[in-house]
Amino acid sequence: xxxxxxxxxxxxxxxxxxxxxxxxxxxxxxxxxxxxxxxxxxxxxxxxxxxxxxxxxxxxxxxxxxxxxxxxxxxxxxxxxxxxxxxxxxxxxxxxxxxxxxxxxxxxxxxxxxxxxxxxxxxxxxxxxxxxxxxxxxxxxxxxxxxxxxxxxxxxxxxxxxxxxxxxxxxxxxxxxxxxxxxxxxxxxxxxxxxxxxxxx
Length: 201
Known about the structure:
This is DUF6232 family protein. InterPro entries: DUF6232. By secondary structure, the protein is of the alpha+beta class. It has helices spanning 59-90, 92-121, 146-161; strands spanning 25-31, 34-37, 40-43, 47-55, 126-133, 137-142, 167-172, 187-189, 197-200. Residues 12-23 and 185-201 have low confidence and may be disordered.
């Protein structure tokens, strides 16, 4: 092995030539008339549409839901405060305890609502490749390079038209909370937060 320091010094191993792949990377490959997205297989003859689009967060709905939650939380808190005030007339200790629990619960609900809202508002738009099948399933992947996804559309269509074509590329898992995004239809994600498969509800 070639030394990286003068003799007598500790040798430092050379840096790796290629950085390790990101944990979110998956293989998308076509072979033997199957489209593989990581471990999920889709027969090419069942593919009905391949396209790219921008997946956008549900910011308007999240804001409306937040306002609704705040309204309900404060309404319930004020109603229970009035009830606690009436209770304190008969028993001052019980009324104070009720008020403490009411406003602690209201504060917890408001914090939850704010965190949920910020999660949607801060969610980035995702440029994705979607592959729909004649069945109830759809595969989605993303990439840091949108041009790669646009080229993949042509590659998959070419493979559908030419049974002998095979290829393999690295893409990224779609790592989003499905509640936070518009998917066009109601969908369910498989596999927690590291998602590549989607089925219409």
